[in-house]
Amino acid sequence: MSLTATLTATVEAVFVGEPGIIGTVGGRPVESAIAKARVAVPELDLAPTNLAGDRQADLTVHGGVDKAVYVYPTDHYPVWRSEGFAVEVGGLGENVALAGVVEDDVRLGDVWRWGEALVEVSQPRAPCYKLALHTGRKDIGARMLATGRSGWYLRVVRPGRVPTGGTMTLVERPEDAATLRETFGLMFDEAFADAATLDRVLASPALAESWRVSLAARRG
Questions:
Q1: 176-207: per-residue pLDDT in tens?
Q2: Averaged over 114-125, what is the pLDDT?
Q3: I need a surface site. Which of 29, 46, 132, 207 has the fewest CB within 10 A?
Q4: Concatenated DSSP letters for 37-84?
Q5: Torsion of Cα atoms, 5 then 10 then 46 then 119, to 10°
Q6: CATH number for the segment(s) 8-175
Q7: Domain locations in the chain?
Q8: What are residue 112's DSSP bridge partners?
Q9: Rounded distance, CA 68 to CA 44, Å?
Q10: Gap between the Cα atoms of 125 and 30, Å rounded
Protein backbone atom coordinates (compact mmCIF):
# COMPACT_ATOMS: atom_id res chain seq x y z
CA MET A 1 0.00 0.00 0.00
CA SER A 2 1.10 3.56 -0.66
CA LEU A 3 -0.31 7.02 -0.37
CA THR A 4 1.05 9.83 -2.47
CA ALA A 5 -1.35 12.56 -1.34
CA THR A 6 -4.01 13.04 1.29
CA LEU A 7 -7.53 13.05 -0.13
CA THR A 8 -10.45 14.19 1.99
CA ALA A 9 -14.13 14.17 1.08
CA THR A 10 -17.11 15.69 2.88
CA VAL A 11 -19.89 13.53 4.29
CA GLU A 12 -22.94 15.66 3.50
CA ALA A 13 -25.51 13.18 4.81
CA VAL A 14 -26.01 9.57 5.87
CA PHE A 15 -29.12 7.54 5.04
CA VAL A 16 -30.49 4.22 6.32
CA GLY A 17 -33.63 2.23 5.57
CA GLU A 18 -35.63 -0.91 6.18
CA PRO A 19 -37.19 -3.06 3.43
CA GLY A 20 -40.60 -2.00 2.18
CA ILE A 21 -42.77 -2.31 -0.92
CA ILE A 22 -41.65 0.14 -3.62
CA GLY A 23 -43.93 -0.92 -6.47
CA THR A 24 -45.09 -3.90 -8.49
CA VAL A 25 -43.72 -5.88 -11.42
CA GLY A 26 -46.05 -8.22 -13.27
CA GLY A 27 -48.68 -7.61 -10.60
CA ARG A 28 -46.37 -8.74 -7.81
CA PRO A 29 -45.09 -6.44 -5.07
CA VAL A 30 -41.39 -5.60 -5.08
CA GLU A 31 -39.62 -5.23 -1.75
CA SER A 32 -36.51 -3.10 -1.33
CA ALA A 33 -34.71 -0.86 1.15
CA ILE A 34 -33.64 1.59 -1.55
CA ALA A 35 -35.90 4.28 -0.06
CA LYS A 36 -33.77 5.52 2.83
CA ALA A 37 -34.23 8.28 5.42
CA ARG A 38 -31.62 10.82 6.42
CA VAL A 39 -30.04 10.09 9.80
CA ALA A 40 -30.66 12.92 12.26
CA VAL A 41 -28.26 11.87 15.04
CA PRO A 42 -24.61 13.02 14.86
CA GLU A 43 -23.13 9.50 14.75
CA LEU A 44 -24.10 5.84 14.58
CA ASP A 45 -22.54 2.38 14.65
CA LEU A 46 -21.01 0.76 11.60
CA ALA A 47 -20.91 -3.05 11.82
CA PRO A 48 -19.17 -5.44 9.37
CA THR A 49 -22.22 -5.65 7.08
CA ASN A 50 -24.43 -2.66 7.88
CA LEU A 51 -24.88 0.76 9.34
CA ALA A 52 -27.18 0.71 12.37
CA GLY A 53 -30.78 0.92 11.16
CA ASP A 54 -30.00 -0.19 7.62
CA ARG A 55 -30.99 -3.52 6.04
CA GLN A 56 -31.44 -5.06 2.60
CA ALA A 57 -34.43 -6.95 1.25
CA ASP A 58 -32.67 -9.47 -1.02
CA LEU A 59 -29.36 -10.60 0.43
CA THR A 60 -28.57 -12.71 -2.63
CA VAL A 61 -27.72 -9.56 -4.59
CA HIS A 62 -27.51 -6.75 -2.02
CA GLY A 63 -25.63 -6.22 1.21
CA GLY A 64 -23.04 -8.53 2.72
CA VAL A 65 -19.41 -7.82 3.53
CA ASP A 66 -18.54 -6.56 0.03
CA LYS A 67 -21.46 -4.12 -0.05
CA ALA A 68 -21.81 -2.95 3.53
CA VAL A 69 -22.10 0.75 2.67
CA TYR A 70 -23.12 2.43 -0.59
CA VAL A 71 -21.53 5.82 -1.34
CA TYR A 72 -22.80 8.26 -3.95
CA PRO A 73 -21.13 11.53 -5.02
CA THR A 74 -23.30 14.59 -4.45
CA ASP A 75 -21.45 16.23 -7.35
CA HIS A 76 -23.53 14.11 -9.75
CA TYR A 77 -26.96 15.33 -8.64
CA PRO A 78 -26.94 18.68 -10.48
CA VAL A 79 -25.99 16.80 -13.65
CA TRP A 80 -28.83 14.31 -13.21
CA ARG A 81 -31.28 17.17 -12.75
CA SER A 82 -29.91 19.03 -15.78
CA GLU A 83 -30.71 15.92 -17.81
CA GLY A 84 -34.32 15.92 -16.59
CA PHE A 85 -34.10 13.37 -13.76
CA ALA A 86 -35.92 14.66 -10.67
CA VAL A 87 -33.54 13.22 -8.09
CA GLU A 88 -32.24 14.82 -4.91
CA VAL A 89 -29.39 13.87 -2.58
CA GLY A 90 -30.27 10.52 -1.02
CA GLY A 91 -32.58 9.67 -3.88
CA LEU A 92 -30.49 6.92 -5.47
CA GLY A 93 -30.45 4.65 -2.43
CA GLU A 94 -27.08 5.67 -1.05
CA ASN A 95 -26.01 5.35 2.56
CA VAL A 96 -23.43 8.13 2.31
CA ALA A 97 -23.77 11.29 0.24
CA LEU A 98 -20.15 12.30 -0.33
CA ALA A 99 -18.95 15.60 -1.77
CA GLY A 100 -15.61 16.36 -3.39
CA VAL A 101 -14.80 13.06 -5.13
CA VAL A 102 -16.25 11.09 -8.04
CA GLU A 103 -15.48 7.74 -9.66
CA ASP A 104 -12.37 9.07 -11.43
CA ASP A 105 -10.87 10.11 -8.08
CA VAL A 106 -11.52 6.89 -6.15
CA ARG A 107 -9.59 3.66 -6.69
CA LEU A 108 -10.32 0.01 -6.09
CA GLY A 109 -8.87 -0.95 -2.70
CA ASP A 110 -8.69 2.59 -1.34
CA VAL A 111 -8.98 2.56 2.45
CA TRP A 112 -10.74 5.53 4.04
CA ARG A 113 -10.98 6.60 7.67
CA TRP A 114 -14.54 7.46 8.65
CA GLY A 115 -14.75 8.33 12.32
CA GLU A 116 -13.57 5.30 14.28
CA ALA A 117 -14.04 3.01 11.28
CA LEU A 118 -11.87 2.04 8.34
CA VAL A 119 -13.62 1.20 5.07
CA GLU A 120 -12.32 -0.17 1.77
CA VAL A 121 -13.60 0.44 -1.75
CA SER A 122 -14.73 -2.94 -3.12
CA GLN A 123 -16.74 -2.34 -6.33
CA PRO A 124 -18.88 0.10 -8.30
CA ARG A 125 -22.67 -0.08 -8.12
CA ALA A 126 -24.47 -1.89 -10.94
CA PRO A 127 -28.04 -0.55 -11.33
CA CYS A 128 -31.00 -2.94 -11.22
CA TYR A 129 -34.69 -2.58 -12.01
CA LYS A 130 -35.46 -1.43 -8.45
CA LEU A 131 -33.70 1.86 -9.15
CA ALA A 132 -36.19 2.50 -11.97
CA LEU A 133 -39.12 1.61 -9.72
CA HIS A 134 -37.85 3.85 -6.94
CA THR A 135 -37.22 6.89 -9.15
CA GLY A 136 -40.13 6.37 -11.52
CA ARG A 137 -37.78 6.51 -14.51
CA LYS A 138 -37.33 3.41 -16.64
CA ASP A 139 -34.33 4.97 -18.36
CA ILE A 140 -32.27 5.85 -15.28
CA GLY A 141 -30.38 2.55 -15.16
CA ALA A 142 -29.36 2.85 -18.80
CA ARG A 143 -28.22 6.42 -18.20
CA MET A 144 -26.11 5.34 -15.22
CA LEU A 145 -24.50 2.65 -17.38
CA ALA A 146 -23.79 5.14 -20.16
CA THR A 147 -22.26 7.82 -17.93
CA GLY A 148 -20.48 5.77 -15.26
CA ARG A 149 -22.16 7.80 -12.51
CA SER A 150 -22.43 4.64 -10.44
CA GLY A 151 -21.18 5.41 -6.95
CA TRP A 152 -19.35 2.66 -5.10
CA TYR A 153 -19.55 0.15 -2.27
CA LEU A 154 -17.41 -0.06 0.84
CA ARG A 155 -16.22 -3.08 2.78
CA VAL A 156 -15.75 -2.56 6.53
CA VAL A 157 -12.13 -3.13 7.56
CA ARG A 158 -12.59 -1.86 11.11
CA PRO A 159 -16.08 -1.31 12.59
CA GLY A 160 -16.80 1.63 14.86
CA ARG A 161 -18.79 4.79 15.45
CA VAL A 162 -19.06 6.99 12.37
CA PRO A 163 -20.21 10.61 12.04
CA THR A 164 -23.17 11.56 9.88
CA GLY A 165 -21.33 14.73 8.88
CA GLY A 166 -17.69 15.75 8.71
CA THR A 167 -15.19 13.96 6.51
CA MET A 168 -13.78 10.74 5.13
CA THR A 169 -10.00 10.72 4.64
CA LEU A 170 -8.01 8.44 2.36
CA VAL A 171 -5.36 6.61 4.40
CA GLU A 172 -4.16 3.82 2.09
CA ARG A 173 -4.08 3.35 -1.68
CA PRO A 174 -2.78 0.28 -3.53
CA GLU A 175 -0.10 0.98 -6.09
CA ASP A 176 -1.34 0.97 -9.70
CA ALA A 177 -4.95 0.49 -8.61
CA ALA A 178 -7.67 1.07 -11.22
CA THR A 179 -10.15 3.87 -10.70
CA LEU A 180 -13.80 3.07 -10.06
CA ARG A 181 -14.63 4.59 -13.44
CA GLU A 182 -12.21 2.17 -15.13
CA THR A 183 -13.58 -0.75 -13.14
CA PHE A 184 -17.18 0.12 -13.99
CA GLY A 185 -16.25 0.68 -17.62
CA LEU A 186 -14.71 -2.79 -17.93
CA MET A 187 -18.09 -4.26 -17.10
CA PHE A 188 -20.36 -1.94 -19.05
CA ASP A 189 -18.47 0.22 -21.57
CA GLU A 190 -16.51 -1.16 -24.54
CA ALA A 191 -14.33 1.96 -24.53
CA PHE A 192 -12.71 0.59 -21.36
CA ALA A 193 -12.21 -2.95 -22.72
CA ASP A 194 -8.46 -2.98 -22.24
CA ALA A 195 -6.60 -6.18 -21.35
CA ALA A 196 -4.04 -4.40 -19.17
CA THR A 197 -6.75 -2.64 -17.16
CA LEU A 198 -8.64 -5.90 -16.80
CA ASP A 199 -5.50 -7.55 -15.43
CA ARG A 200 -5.00 -4.70 -12.94
CA VAL A 201 -8.57 -4.95 -11.69
CA LEU A 202 -8.51 -8.74 -11.36
CA ALA A 203 -5.20 -8.54 -9.50
CA SER A 204 -6.77 -6.44 -6.77
CA PRO A 205 -7.53 -8.43 -3.60
CA ALA A 206 -10.13 -5.78 -2.76
CA LEU A 207 -12.36 -6.56 -5.75
CA ALA A 208 -15.72 -8.00 -4.71
CA GLU A 209 -16.03 -11.68 -5.58
CA SER A 210 -19.13 -11.27 -7.74
CA TRP A 211 -17.31 -8.75 -9.94
CA ARG A 212 -14.20 -10.93 -10.03
CA VAL A 213 -16.17 -13.88 -11.41
CA SER A 214 -17.91 -11.77 -14.06
CA LEU A 215 -14.78 -9.97 -15.20
CA ALA A 216 -12.61 -13.11 -15.19
CA ALA A 217 -15.02 -14.65 -17.68
CA ARG A 218 -14.16 -11.86 -20.11
CA ARG A 219 -10.57 -12.99 -20.39
CA GLY A 220 -11.83 -15.68 -22.73
A1: 999 999 999 999 988 888 899 999 999 999 99
A2: 98
A3: 29
A4: EE--SSEEEE-SS-BTT---S-TTTS-SGGGSEEEEEGGGHHHHHHTT
A5: -20
A6: 2.40.33.20
A7: 8-175
A8: 119, 170
A9: 14
A10: 20
